[in-house]
Task: inverse folding
């Protein structure tokens, strides 16, 4: 199982701040694809510019969406922040 923590508009797509994905996806990209399949169309547009963390580490500095995910890992999705 992989836990996914969601913030702001991403959380609204799921009615809460976390989702658990069973049957362990193998990569961060597979986690994103599973979330897309579970959510409505608004979630797809909310993914633009999102930061993806695996156990607190940005996947951009690992292997990107090909970063391996193992059971018990936590994926955090943080949308871009704007304002002033």
Result:
């Amino acid at each position: 199982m992989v836990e996914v923590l969601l913030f702001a508009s991403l959380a609204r797509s799921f009615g809460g701040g976390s989702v658990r994905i069973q049957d362990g996806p193998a990569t961060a990209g597979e986690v994103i694809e599973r979330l897309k399949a579970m959510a409505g169309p608004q979630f797809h547009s909310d993914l633009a510019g999102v930061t993806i963390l695996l156990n607190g580490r940005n996947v951009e500095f690992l292997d990107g969406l090909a970063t391996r995910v193992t059971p018990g890992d936590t994926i955090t999705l943080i949308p871009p922040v704007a304002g002033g």
